[in-house]
Design a protein that fits this description.
Elements (H helix, E strand, L loop, with lengths): L1 H22 L2 E6 L14 H19 L4 E4 L5 H13 L6 E8 L8 H13 L2 E6 L6 H11 L3 E5 L6 H11 L3 E5 L2
Parallel strand pairs: 1-2, 1-5, 2-3, 3-4, 5-6
Helix pairs in contact: 2-3, 5-6
């Protein structure tokens, strides 16, 4: 019985070690919604285009360093832009994966039809979806963010320096000694 228990314990430790090693090469994204950014929803604004280009460089740098799995919260703005960038880079680096970490199944319920269409198109292209709750509940966004941070070792963040969900997520990542790359708007 002792040997069987010892083997089982060793196996569990090995599995935990493997998961930790896999997550070591995962990246998560966090960033502000368009309403909190100087360009709002205008993706033709030169400031948006500049930020998008800088973000693409950071994602590609991560891939070159060996990161292969990207966790995206699929929220409006930075999240969806990052998902599109990863999908674009997947053409050049077909081994990379994109996982949608959505807080609830009805995340896009209050969005306009254009935003919903863009979201649904992205969902169809994901390698996997991790849904935290069936329906919106208080705290589901924060729990989604914690899930992403807990399962990655690198965070790429669009951060304007102000308090809010993005700052909370960055602070949480730093408290766990995760590497955080800050992109300023």
């Amino acid at each position: 019985m002792f040997f069987r228990k010892k083997i089982l314990t060793d196996t569990i430790k090995e599995i935990e070690n493997e998961v930790e090693q896999l997550n070591r090469f995962w990246v998560s994204f966090t960033g502000h919604r368009p309403q909190k950014l100087p360009w709002g929803f205008n993706e033709n604004d030169e400031r948006f285009i500049d930020m998008k280009n800088r973000t693409k460089v950071e994602i590609e740098n991560a891939i070159i360093k060996g990161y292969h799995t990207f966790l995206c919260g699929m929220a409006l703005g930075f999240d969806m832009m990052c998902a599109e960038l990863v999908l674009e880079l997947k053409k050049k680096y077909p081994h990379i994966k994109l996982i949608g970490a959505i807080p609830c199944k009805n995340q896009c319920e209050r969005w306009n039809s254009i935003q919903k269409t863009r979201y649904q198109k992205l969902l169809k292209q994901l390698d996997k979806i991790r849904c935290i709750y069936d329906h919106y509940e208080d705290g589901c966004m924060q729990e989604r963010n914690q899930y992403m941070i807990n399962n990655s070792s690198l965070v790429i963040a669009l951060f304007n320096g102000k308090n809010g969900g993005t700052k909370t997520t960055i602070d949480y990542a730093k408290s766990l000694d995760k590497e955080v790359v800050i992109i300023t708007p």
